[in-house]
Structures are given as structure tokens and as C-alpha cells.
Specification:
CATH architecture of the largest domain: 2-Layer Sandwich
CATH superfamily of the largest domain: DNA ligase/mRNA capping enzyme
Distance between the termini: 63 Å
Helix content: 10-25%
Largest sheet: 8 strands, antiparallel, barrel
Number of helices: 17
Number of strands: 44
Radius of gyration: 29 Å
Shape: globular
Strand order of the largest sheet: 1-2-3-4-9-8-7-6
Strand content: 25-35%
Oligomer: single chain
CATH class of the largest domain: Alpha Beta
Length: 833
């Protein structure tokens, strides 16, 4: 008999593919049976349906995907079992390997079989309920008698409350994206017809690039796609070893070279190769066997300055003769992944690659190590957009990073075009464009003013042709202008983007003295929010002031995050986390060898050499405790390899009287996130009924924390008993969803609401603390309104939280103003008087 997963493992080379090797798991697991559906753009786009059974994922490939219509039967081709770890796999399977292509998790959750699932599977007749993010209700999966190399099954939806006629609602079209991440999957164009316009160059002789030393390069298969590194807007230049480049006024383009196949992609993955055939031909002439290159395409004006409108005109007229591709990074080269190499090494390799380049088409983006203040002044005087700064030894990461920054000469960004006005006087076509931008908190599209200058006659006419087909009756913005400003406005579907410079923005969020610079086509409208500068990173200051030893020690291998970056994170969030640490006993999770080594949970100050560390003995607090509530003390804890900080529910003001209680919603890991959202809403509804104001934060792991502030009146036993009563009451109301009993076996298919955090000495991870997990997620306070918008409790991490905090808006601003206590009436109501 073949071993479980033998066929799966035989088909894959795990040194090259990012897929999990996995092992079949024996015996029952203390969680519900999970299912997942992965959207897979391989040789053809299809959906992989997987059900957990007997320690593996039984798997079927569904060419057309599932349908909610009971009248529609979907073919499901039985394929090899997959490991359970595969249920959360997303990524790119390299070309040349089995299943090559992009994979996202389209849906996931719990499946509830009717009867014995193993017996039903063996007989070829499965009937089950799904509890997923997208699919729910009863389904049938049955084996057919159709011939073929692989078993042919059929997947059919039962006619129940979750069924929908396909003519009315196509779930695949309505909800195309991942349930685990922000990933979308745009199917690749298949066949040969797409390539007929692509320039065909004679294969040049292959040669190694003279790249010098590449200290951390590693052999790797060329990825099918690459997400670019993005820069963070800052107010002032930072200290330290930085290199500065011109901030080009163009389109970000990434080039992929795989033998004779050269392709040019926008930052969002759209293939623009046919729009720039001359640049593609020049790249083919570099003689590289494989590479990813990163840069920006521009068209210069008569003064030699990049002109965005001229670039747009070049694309509109399909003339790429004047387009220059400025290259500034080289993440992959000739079978080697260079992303872990320092910037200066990648730049040296890039310079060597570009030595024979056609400078009319390809150029190296020069960098400078001069004082950034003088460089910025010069670029602004020359009417350039600004500077891009890059830390000299930074790695290449596919996300926005504080190791790449941008300094702008003036305020300029993209806006969504939401309408236009009628022309007046001698003006033709239209008068002004109405602009919108997405609110950082609510996600709503909000009115942001008008732009009526920067157009010429040709631009006005060509724009009008693009605007007219998008007209709608109602505005797309949540706060449209009223009165005279709204008279005669033509409202539009929010699809087109305008690049606009402006002098200032009013408190109401309306731009003043704005100038149109062109349309943008390389970003989706839904991604456009107001860009606000943040304080510049201070890495060199941290090196000296924080005295971080072993700063380059890798803490999280999955993201390449080192100890220095952990210190920088806590330095940057100190003003946010310190109020939550103030006078509060804290326990630390320390990781001396990073996430791959042993973790230590430490509750007292024994042998910790941390400046300003405050400690209290058992006589004072009932047990030995420590307090870390100063910036230098916090960073001293980081020097001692601290990742997580967990806090008591009481402070040094009165160790015997809690000033809050916490309900920690801890789910069966197999449950869909939707179940967590619903459980949190139910918890909030009960607390609202009791008249208790509650505050939410993500756990940074799988669940949510509901925090209820209290005045210091009740003791530990009273507070714990009250929270226990709440949890018991809720579990009694919803026994199929919630559990009041701890332990994995008691939360199978359910969510345990942990009230045990409310005993003396028990702790909960602090708001804005990192979590010692892959990716270094963060526990983050949120507003109630944000709950339904979350994709998971680990949505924010060390690398992306800065964007959320940049606007300075605190979701818990009312926390310290909240005055409430566990009155006698409340305790009687919950049966704990």
C-alpha cells in the first residue's frame, strides 16, 4: 500500500518549490475538519477543492470552480492527497515544476460530514455542510462512472438557504480574491496569439554578469511574479548611511527575463510588454539567462526633466521611441536570488549588467551620497518631484519599507476621478475634474476637491472621451459637494486616476491650488488613499543610543527581519505602546536565537540588566513583578531579545484591584475568520446590553481581544467571577459556536472565550506588542466599525503597521475617559452577586 502523500511528494522538488513538504498526521486532532479551496492559475485556471480526512487533504481539481446554483453540476477531478499545511499555502510555483503558476486561498473553513466521512468517501458519496468565508450550506460530492486516467466526481450545491441562482449571483466573479491576504489572481493570457506583437530578438550569447561580491545570493528558480519594494513618505531626511536617487515622474516597471522571453510589468502585475517593444528588445540585448530588474520608465522634456504627461502621451499614441527605462535594482540574476544581498551589492551587479546597454533605452539610475538637504533643494529648484533614499545595506523586500524613503518637493499624489463639470467661457470639453480619495479608517471614498488647470486642448478632448462612458446618476463619494458646487456635475464611476499636485489641503480634506499632471493606469482605484509623511527612521541613532548587540541577527527567517528592525519598530511605536504599559506589571517573551530557537516567558526581573526597570516583590504585588514603562527601558528589553510584552489587568496604583477585564476569543484554527467576526459581535452585543463599554484589538494571532475598562473597586475574584459568568451565559446561548471550557478538545469547531486572563498574575499581550510568530504580527487596537473589514487577527505586522499609525488617529482615544464598574445590580443580573 502506498504511503500517504507519497504521490504528492514524488511530483515535487521541495528545494525549488515553496509548497510545504508536509507529513500525514495520524490520529484525531483537537480541531474541526478543515476545508480549503485554492484558486490556481497553472496550465489553466481552476479551483482546487480540499477536504481534511484521515490526516491529509483529499483533493479535487474543479475546472470551472464551485457554483451556488443547485441546478449546476461541476466536474471535480480527483487528484493526489495534499498535506494539511497546504490549506494555508499561497504563492508562486516556479515554472518547470508540477502545477507551475500562482496560488491563492480563495476560501477556507470547516466541513461537517453527514455520517461516517471515511466510509462515505470510500463509497464515493459525500454529503456535508460547509462553514466558510464564501461557501456555506449543504453540498454533495459524488463519484461518477465517467472514464479517464483520474476519477471523475461531481460537486453540487443543495437547495437550501445558502443556494443562489447562477444567473443572479456568480460567487466566483463577485468574490475573486484571497480570504487570507490582499492577493488577487489575474489569469495569465494563454496561447500564442498574445505573443505575435512581441519583439523577437536573435538569442544573444549568454554570459555571467560581473557582479562583484554578492554575499547572500542563493540559487533559486526565477519567480513567475514579483511584488516591488515601495518607499515610505517622510518629513525629513534620516541619519545614517543612505544613498539618494532622483524621484522619477513616471511609471514603475519591473522587467522579467527568462531566456528569450522578456516581459515588462507594472507594479500591480499588468503586462505592458507590447506597449514598450523597444525597451523589451534592449533588455533582450543584455545577454542575461534570467533576471528580474526594477526601475521606472520616463519621457524627458526639453530641459531633460521627466514629464509625466509626455509619458502618458507616448503610451496613448503607441510611440515608445522617447521612453527611457531607468533601472535601480536587481532582485534576481542568472539563477540567483539577490534579495538578501545588501543594496550596494545589488547596485554593483546592476551596473555591471548595464555596461553594454543601449543608453537610449536603458540607463542606470545614478545615486548620490551627498547631504540630502542640498540634493533635495537642487532637485526642487530644477522642478523635479523629489528624492528616493535607500539605506545602503538594506535588503529587497516586496512591500512598503522604512528602508526606502521618499522626500517630495511639493505635495502630489493620485486621486480618483469621481466627476467633471461643464466648461465655461471659451473652455472646451469640460471645466474641472472632481476628485476623491479613500478614507484611511472607514475605507469610504470621500470628496477631495477639484482640479481645473494643467490641461491643454488635446488633453481636454482626449480626457472627455475617457470620462463620458463612465457617467452615472449618483456620486460615488460619501460626502458629495452640495449647493452651487454640485450644480451641473457629471458623476462618474470611480475608475480613472489623476496625478495631481497641490499647494495645501484644508481641514475638510479639500485640495487647493491643484494642477493636473496626467492619468495613471498602473494602480487600482480602490488602493488610493491620502499619503501622509511619517517620521524618518533612525537606525543609526538606535545603533548608538540603544546599544543593540548582534543587530544583524535574523529574528524571523520568513521575512528576513533582524534584531535591529525589531528595535526600530519598538522605538517608532513607543509613544503608542507606553500608555498601555504605564505602571502595569509585565511579562516578557524573549527569543535569544530568534523564532527558530527556544522562547522564554519571563515574569520577574531576575538577572535582567535593563535601564530603568522597576520591580516589586511578593509583599507588594502578591508575587514578584516588573514594570517597563519608559522608552529607554522598553528598548533595553529589546536588547535582551524581547519580542512580546504581556500585561496584568491591574497597575502599581493598586495591585489588588483590576482596572479592566479581558475576554480573549480563541478559535479552533480550522474555523473561517467570519466565525471570529460573528463571535466578537455577539460578545459586544451582550456587553452593550449590560451597559459596559468595550474596546477591541486584534490578538496578532488567530483571535480577538475584547477589553472592558473598570474603575478600581472590585477585587480579582469578583472580576474573574463576573467575566466567567459572561462567558458561561454566551456559551449557553450559542453552544454550537462558543465554549466556556478551556483546552483544544473543548473548542473543536467552536471558539473558546478565555476568561482566565482575569486572575491575579495572568497576562494578556499588550496593545502594539509584536507576536513571536512568522511575519512578526502585532496586536492592534481597532474601532468596532473596522471589525467586518478585517481579514484576520494578524493583519498588521512589524513592517506595515507604520502606515496605519501615520495619521495619528487612536481607535482607543476614549479608553481613559471611560468610567464604569461592576455594580451590585450588574453582578446580580449575571448571577454572581
Amino acid at each position: 500500500m502506498a504511503k500517504p502523500l507519497q504521490e504528492y511528494q514524488r511530483k515535487r522538488n521541495f528545494d525549488a518549490t515553496p509548497e510545504p513538504a508536509g507529513k500525514a498526521r495520524r490520529g484525531a486532532r483537537a480541531q474541526a475538519l478543515q476545508f480549503c479551496i485554492q484558486k490556481h492559475d497553472a496550465s489553466h485556471l481552476h479551483y482546487d477543492f480540499r477536504l481534511e480526512l484521515n490526516g491529509t487533504l483529499k483533493s479535487w481539481a474543479i475546472p470551472k470552480g464551485p457554483s451556488l446554483d443547485p441546478k449546476v453540476k461541476r466536474l471535480a477531478v480527483h487528484v493526489e492527497d495534499h498535506p494539511l499545511d497546504y490549506a494555508s499555502f499561497e504563492g508562486s510555483i516556479p515554472a518547470g515544476h508540477y502545477g507551475a503558476g500562482e496560488v491563492i486561498v480563495w476560501d477556507r473553513g470547516v466541513w461537517l460530514p453527514e455520517g461516517d466521512p471515511a466510509q462515505a468517501y470510500a463509497s464515493g458519496k459525500l454529503r456535508f455542510r460547509l462553514q466558510g468565508e464564501k461557501l456555506n450550506g449543504t453540498w454533495h460530492l459524488f463519484r461518477t462512472r465517467l472514464g479517464g486516467k483520474k476519477e471523475q466526481w461531481m460537486l453540487v450545491k443543495s437547495d437550501d438557504e445558502a443556494a443562489r441562482a447562477e444567473a443572479d449571483y456568480d460567487v466566483l466573479q463577485a468574490q475573486p480574491d484571497s480570504v487570507l491576504s490582499e492577493r488577487s489572481l489575474i489569469p495569465r493570457t494563454k496561447g500564442k496569439g498574445k505573443d505575435k506583437d512581441k519583439p523577437k530578438a536573435a538569442p544573444p550569447p549568454r554570459r555571467p554578469a560581473r557582479a562583484g561580491t554578492l554575499s547572500a545570493a542563493r540559487k533559486a528558480t526565477l519567480p513567475a511574479a514579483l511584488t516591488p519594494q515601495l518607499a515610505t513618505l517622510v518629513e525629513t531626511p534620516p541619519q545614517g548611511d543612505w544613498r539618494y536617487e532622483v524621484k522619477f515622474d513616471g511609471y514603475r516597471i519591473l522587467a522579467r527575463i527568462d531566456g528569450d522571453d522578456v516581459r515588462l510589468f507594472t507594479r500591480n502585475g499588468h503586462d505592458w510588454t507590447t506597449r514598450m517593444p523597444l525597451q523589451a528588445k534592449a533588455l533582450a540585448g543584455l545577454g542575461l539567462s534570467s533576471a528580474w530588474l526594477d526601475g521606472e520608465v520616463v519621457v524627458a522634456n526639453a530641459e531633460g526633466i521627466a514629464d509625466f504627461q509626455a509619458l502618458q502621451n507616448a503610451f496613448d499614441s503607441d510611440t515608445d521611441a522617447n521612453i527611457v527605462y531607468y533601472l535601480f535594482d536587481l532582485p534576481y540574476l542568472n539563477g540567483m536570488d539577490l534579495r538578501q544581498c545588501p543594496l550596494q551589492e545589488r547596485r554593483a551587479a546592476l551596473a555591471a549588467v548595464l555596461e553594454p546597454a543601449d543608453e537610449q533605452r536603458l540607463r542606470l539610475s545614478a545615486d548620490f551620497d551627498e547631504a540630502p538637504e542640498s540634493l533635495l533643494a537642487s532637485s526642487c529648484q530644477m522642478q523635479m518631484e523629489g528624492l528616493i533614499g535607500k539605506r545602503a545595506d538594506s535588503l529587497y523586500v516586496s512591500r512598503r519599507s522604512h528602508n526606502w524613503i521618499k522626500l517630495k518637493c511639493k505635495q502630489r499624489q493620485e486621486f480618483v476621478i469621481v466627476g467633471f463639470t461643464e466648461p465655461k467661457g471659451s473652455r472646451a470639453a469640460f471645466g474641472a475634474l472632481l476628485l476623491g480619495v479613500h478614507d484611511a479608517d472607514s475605507g469610504q471614498l470621500r470628496y477631495a476637491g477639484k482640479v481645473g488647470t494643467g490641461f491643454n486642448t488635446a488633453t481636454l478632448q482626449s480626457l472627455l472621451q475617457r470620462l463620458t462612458p463612465l457617467e452615472v446618476k449618483k456620486p460615488a463619494v460619501a460626502n458629495p459637494p452640495t449647493g452651487a458646487e454640485a450644480r451641473g456635475v457629471h458623476w462618474l464611476r470611480p475608475q480613472l486616476l489623476a496625478e495631481v499636485a497641490y499647494a495645501q489641503m484644508t481641514r475638510e480634506g479639500v485640495v487647493r491650488h491643484s494642477v493636473f499632471h496626467g492619468l495613471r493606469e498602473d494602480k487600482p482605484a480602490r488602493a488610493i488613499g491620502l499619503e501622509k509623511p511619517v517620521k524618518a527612521p533612525t537606525r543609526k541613532a538606535s545603533d548608538n543610543t540603544l546599544r543593540i548587540t548582534h543587530p544583524d541577527r535574523v529574528i524571523d527567517a520568513s521575512s528576513g527581519t533582524d534584531k535591529r528592525q525589531v528595535a526600530e519598530y519598538y522605538a517608532q511605536v513607543a509613544e503608542w505602546i507606553l500608555p498601555h504599559l504605564k505602571r502595569r506589571p509585565v511579562a516578557l517573551v524573549r527569543a535569544p536565537e530568534g523564532l527558530s530557537g527556544e522562547l522564554f516567558f519571563q515574569k520577574n526581573a531576575a538577572q535582567l540588566n535593563i535601564p530603568g526597570l522597576e520591580s516589586h516583590d511578593k509583599a507588594e504585588a502578591g508575587q514578584a513583578v516588573m514594570i517597563i514603562d519608559r522608552a529607554d527601558t522598553l528598548l533595553g528589553a529589546v536588547q535582551m531579545n524581547t519580542l512580546e510584552l504581556h500585561t496584568w489587568n491591574a497597575t502599581a496604583r493598586d495591585f489588588d484591584k483590576p482596572d479592566r477585564f479581558v475576554l480573549d476569543l480563541d478559535p479552533d484554527p480550522a474555523l473561517p475568520w467570519k466565525a471570529m467576526v460573528e463571535a466578537t459581535q455577539l460578545t459586544l452585543a451582550l456587553l452593550d446590553e449590560l451597559g459596559l463599554q468595550a474596546f477591541l484589538k486584534t490578538s496578532g494571532g488567530k483571535g480577538m481581544h475584547v477589553v472592558v475598562p473598570l474603575t478600581r473597586r472590585a477585587g480579582w475574584d469578583e472580576v474573574k467571577a463576573f467575566s466567567h459568568a459572561i462567558v458561561t451565559h454566551m456559551a449557553g446561548l450559542f453552544p454550537d459556536r462558543l465554549s466556556a471550557v478551556s483546552g483544544p478538545k473543548n473548542r473543536v469547531g467552536r471558539i473558546f472565550i478565555d476568561y482566565l486572563r482575569n486572575a491575579r498574575g495572568a497576562t494578556t499581550v499588550c496593545a502594539y506588542s509584536l507576536r513571536a510568530r512568522e511575519g512578526l504580527p502585532v496586536s492592534v487596537p481597532i474601532r468596532r466599525e473596522e471589525l467586518t473589514e478585517l481579514k484576520g487577527a494578524n493583519q498588521w505586522n512589524l513592517h506595515n503597521l507604520g502606515e496605519r499609525l501615520a495619521n495619528g488617529d487612536d481607535p482607543w482615544a476614549d479608553y481613559d475617559k471611560t468610567r464604569q464598574s461592576l455594580t451590585v445590580a450588574l453582578r446580580k443580573r449575571m448571577g454572581v452577586a
